[in-house]
Every structure is written in C-alpha cells, then in structure tokens.
Specification:
This protein is mainly α. The protein has helices at residues 13-43, 47-50, 52-97, 102-131, 135-161, 173-185, 213-244, 248-251, 254-272, 278-298, 302-316, 319-329, 335-364, 366-369, 372-388. The radius of gyration is 20 Å and the shape is globular.
C-alpha cells in the first residue's frame, strides 16, 4: 500500500460546531427512521403507504438541492446552515404534533429531510474548505459523530414509546438540541467559500462554469454508494430473517450490527484518511464491503450473518465520506454548488435504490435481489478507477 505524507487535522471551534450540528442531524435522521413503524401503527396504514415517508424524504432532498445554490448565494453559508437547522427542527415537530394526519406527516418528513440536507452538505463543504488536504479525514470524522449519535437514538425512541410521554416525545430531542446549540455556539463563524487553508476557494466562479465529466462521474459514484447503504439499512433485516429463519422482531437487530460496523469504520477512516491515498482507501473500503456482503449473503447462521453485516458496515462507513470528498475535489473550488448536486444525486439514490431492490425482491426473492449490492460496488469501483486516472495525490486535492 502506498503511503502519503501525514497531514494534520486541526479541530477548531468551527470544526466542532459542524460536528455538533451533524450530531443534531443524526437525531433527526435516526429518530424519524425509528419512529416510522410506530407512526404506521398510529395511522393504521399499510407498509407501502408508510414507505411514502421515505419517498418524501428523497423528494425533499432533491428539491432543496436544486434551490441550494440560490440560497447560499443570497444569505451565505452560515445563515443557510442555521436555516437548515431550523427547518429540520420544524419538520420534526410537524411529525410529532400530527402523527395521525398522513398529509402532514409526509410533509413533515419531506421538510425535515430537505432542510437537514443543507446542514449535512454545506457542513461537509465547510469542512473541506477549512481543512484542505485533511478534508477527507474531517468529513469521515464528522460522519462518525453522526453514526455514534445515531446508534443511541432508536433506544431513546423505544424508551419514550414505553413511557407515559409516548414516542412523539423522543422527536423533541432534535429541536431542543438545535436551540441549545444555537444559543451556545450560534456566533461561531463557519468557513465560507474561499477560506480554505489547504484547498482552493472559488466564490468568483461559483455558479458560472459548468462541471466537467469527472465531476458527474464522481457524483454517479456517490449515487451508487448512497443507494448501497440504504439497501442495507432497509432490506438487510428481511434477508437476515429469510436466511436464518429468525422472526422479524429479532432480525431487526441485524441493522444494529451494520450500524456498529459503520461507527467503527468511520472512526478508523478519519485516522486512515490522513495516511493513505484517497483512491487506495476508497477501493479498499469497497472491497471490505464486498467481502462482508458475501459472508452475509451466503450465511444461514445468525452469528455469521451478524458478522457479515458488521464487516459490510465497516466498509460502507467510508463510502459516503470518500465519495463526497471526491465530488467536492472535482468541483474546481465550487463546493457549495457541488454540495447541492450531491444532495440531488443522494436524494435520487435514496428514492431509487431501495425501491428497485424491493421490486426485484418481489419478482425473484430477497436473496437474489441483494445481488444488486455487488453490482453497485462494481459500478462504484469502475467509476472511481476511471476518474482517478492512475494518479494518486494527498488529501482532498486528489483528482476525482
């Protein structure tokens, strides 16, 4: 494995603010995800109708991605991120306040997801601007914070559901933490385009020149990675149950093994990204995910199935941070525009990937449908090798 000269990751107040904002983001994402089965029971709707909430989340992300360049151009990155925090909280409150009204909860999921995508993608862009060559490490570490917080959120929802307050009370965590963060760190300045210490800014060209083919191929790799992650999140428990014969209630714990692997992978990835060329690290993560998928796909034993999912999570952990870093690196310094495009591609992946796997499962069975995962890994690896062009450079500056 080729080594690179180590670079330092300096965690200043702006970096910690972004990390904490993404921790609040995790309470929204994992909170609404964990609440969906309970919401379905309250509303008395079918699983297909309940699944429309996921579609609403994807649509929200796409709409906001289209509007994001205009928003950041009008009010700047810092104000846009805090607007996203407020909108994410408002959408979550809509769901908590009107759990039996389907149109309202669909709107709440869509609003929360769309505005939360501002927090996620502009936060990633700010980290890349601030840290230059250490950008991939900062992005990986930020995503590790998300996953670590996310592991505990379903337990909070479960505890609230069994209390006198009900599961809706757990959704109040997001607006409460957002308000607390605004009060304590609201004056901290976020890096704006052009503030990079080791990368290139670009406010002068933001919104003008078109992106090249390398950018769109990097965005396609991001699409594959997001689709793959959500296929695991939404369908792994079903395949686990089918393969092992365990009831669905027990099989739901399979996702915890995948999430735990992701948490470990992102923590390790932050360290590795400072020492290993990005392309090598990304390809290695794809191979680890493929190995974990193979163990999981072939196993009929609960122990090996858990192990396969944990290994899969270990690899998948780095896919989104590394893919997003490559999208930003291919943007020519237009990170806010690139973040908007990333939000659109990710939204499409969330909407299309799990739906396609479900359609294949209806026709061919869940195990055969899960062959979609190695297909996505192969497409991502192919796109990565094409965009890399055989050149390895340090940090976020490596050609995407």
């Amino acid at each position: 494995m080729t080594a690179i000269a180590p670079v330092r990751l300096i965690r200043d107040r702006a970096t910690w603010l972004i990390y904490l904002q993404l921790g609040v983001f995790a309470t929204y994402l994992y909170g609404l995800s964990a609440a969906l089965p309970l919401l379905r029971l309250d509303q008395g709707v079918s699983q297909a109708v309940a699944g429309l909430h996921g579609t609403a989340m994807a649509v929200g992300g796409i709409i906001v991605g289209l509007a994001l360049p205009w928003l950041t151009g009008r009010i700047g990155r810092r104000a846009a991120v805090w607007t996203g925090m407020a909108g994410m909280s408002a959408g979550t409150l809509m769901v908590a306040a009107a759990p039996t009204l389907l149109p309202v909860t669909l709107l709440g999921y869509g609003v929360a997801s769309g505005l939360a995508s501002i927090v996620l993608y502009l936060g990633m862009a700010a980290l890349d601007d601030r840290h230059g060559p250490a950008g991939p490490a900062a992005i990986s570490e930020a995503n590790a914070v998300c996953v670590i917080v996310g592991i505990g959120v379903p337990f909070v929802v479960s505890a609230a559901a069994q209390s006198a307050f009900g599961w809706r009370a757990a959704l109040l965590v997001t607006p409460a933490l957002a308000a607390l963060l605004a009060l304590t760190m609201g004056r901290v300045r976020l890096p704006e385009p052009g503030d990079a210490t080791g990368g290139t800014g670009g406010t002068a060209t933001e919104g003008q020149a078109r992106f090249g083919w390398r950018f769109y191929l990097a965005a396609a790799v991001l699409f594959c990675c997001v689709a793959m992650e959500f296929c695991f999140n939404l369908w792994a428990a079903k395949l686990f149950s089918d393969q092992t014969g365990l009831p669905a209630a027990v099989a739901a714990t399979a996702v915890a093994a995948f999430t735990a692997g992701m948490a470990a992978g992102r923590l390790a990835g932050a360290w590795l990204a400072l020492r290993v060329p990005p392309t090598v690290l990304f390809l290695g993560a794809l191979l680890v995910a493929a190995a974990g998928w193979a163990i999981f796909w072939l196993s009929t034993s609960p122990v090996f199935s858990y192990a396969g999912l944990a290994v899969s999570g270990l690899g998948v952990a780095l896919h989104f941070p590394m893919a997003l870093s490559r999208v930003l690196a291919a943007s020519g310094g237009r990170r806010d525009r690139a973040s908007a495009m990333a939000s659109i591609f990710a939204g499409l992946a969330v909407g299309i990937g799990p739906f396609l796997l479900g359609a294949l499962a209806d026709g061919f069975g869940t195990q055969q449908a899960f062959l979609m995962v190695p297909a996505l890994i192969g497409l991502a690896a192919g796109g990565l090798l094409i965009t890399a062009g055989g050149r390895l450079r340090a940090g976020a500056g490596e050609p995407a």
